[in-house]
């Protein structure tokens, strides 16, 4: 039996799906607090443009937008909405469906190998 499946390692499995629009806005708010942005950057617009992206994907979008701004002008003082649009087009979304499938398979595995008592440890 896998050590990960031993009693006490994981008591519950919890699937966390991709963030909704409100969550994506908050994720952008967190990441953009560290990036100087133009006044034309709207959290709501960015959240709309990134439907289906995970938090990690959004983090990558923010980094790519900042890099795009610097590639355009090494003296750039802010990142614009155009930089974000370019970054969004470049970032490949995570394969959420494969994660959902993997989560289901893992849950079935855990349920089929659940330890019911000390006699099951051998």
TrEMBL record:
The keyword ATP-binding applies. It holds the Pfam family AAA_lid_3. Residues 40-85 form the AAA ATPase AAA+ lid domain. Keywords: ATP-binding, Nucleotide-binding. One of its GO terms (cellular component) is chloroplast. It comes from the Eukaryota. One of its GO terms (molecular function) is ATP hydrolysis activity. SUPFAM superfamilies: P-loop containing nucleoside triphosphate hydrolases. Belongs to the AAA ATPase family. This is AAA ATPase AAA+ lid domain-containing protein. It comes from Trapa natans (Water chestnut).
């Amino acid at each position: 039996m896998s050590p990960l499946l031993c009693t006490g390692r994981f008591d519950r499995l919890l699937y966390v799906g991709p963030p909704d629009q409100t969550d994506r806005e908050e994720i952008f708010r967190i990441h953009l607090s560290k990036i100087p942005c133009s006044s034309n950057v709207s959290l709501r617009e960015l959240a709309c443009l990134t439907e289906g992206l995970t938090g990690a994907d959004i983090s990558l979008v923010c980094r790519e937008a900042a890099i795009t701004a610097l590639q355009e002008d090494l003296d750039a003082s802010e990142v614009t909405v155009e930089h974000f649009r370019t970054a969004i087009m470049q970032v490949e979304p995570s394969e959420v469906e494969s994660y959902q499938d993997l989560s289901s398979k893992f849950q079935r595995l855990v349920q089929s190998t659940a330890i019911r008592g000390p006699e099951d440890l051998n």
